[in-house]
Amino acid sequence: MKYTTIKTIIIFLLSLNVYSQNNSGIVKYEVSLNFTLEDIVTEEKKQKKELRTMRKIISESKNSEVVLKFESTKSFSSVSKRMKINEEKTGTDFVYSRAGRDKKFITNLITNSNEMQECKVLEKCYLIQQPSLEWQLTQETKLIGSYLCYKAINISSKNKKKKPIAWYTTTISASFGPKQYFGLPGLILELEEAAVIFKAKEITLNPKDKIVFDTLKGIKINKEAYNKKVKEAYSDFYKI
């Protein structure tokens, strides 16, 4: 099987020529767990305490919804819906957290960049420059609804066990996806991360109403510098 490795800047040059048909749209993704307890047990032996924790997470997880809005050279992604959970019982919402929580992501093809707004961890809002993506394109295909989609692997991911996998369609020539994912020769309709999976459930192309993007404010910083600030602020935690 042949593979092609690309960087997002190459796709940007390609995408500028194909936006005439699908130059704006809104996509709603349903986000759910991408593993079961059986997967964890099969992968490796776990201590009973760890298995109890994972069983609790799986049994109490609720799906979330992420909305992607895009126009010719820009997109905005955020969690729009979080299923109600019993906070006293769970204390956290695993899927909601992995879907992006209250973070907001904005992609700009002109600058070939994606910024994530984070306002909860430190006392100020930060616009964190996400690392550039490198994709490995394959010839593997599958149908998602009526769309023929191609498989791409994010080989720039630091996850050694499972690289993120995107399924994109060239039928919709928008080089965007949920969260920080972009740069493919078409719209991402399905995204598999290690913990959760994003599946497009509703697509609106060229809506009548003008798409409005949120204005993200914060201190601009790269991811490495931001992580350093977090470690300094929570030094006791990182010593554990």
Automatic annotation (TrEMBL):
InterPro entries in the cross-refs: GLPGLI
One Pfam family matching this protein: Porph_ging
NCBIfam families recorded: GLPGLI (TIGR01200)
Name the UniProt record assigns to this protein: GLPGLI family protein
Organism: Polaribacter butkevichii
Taxonomic lineage from the root: Bacteria, Pseudomonadati, Bacteroidota, Flavobacteriia, Flavobacteriales
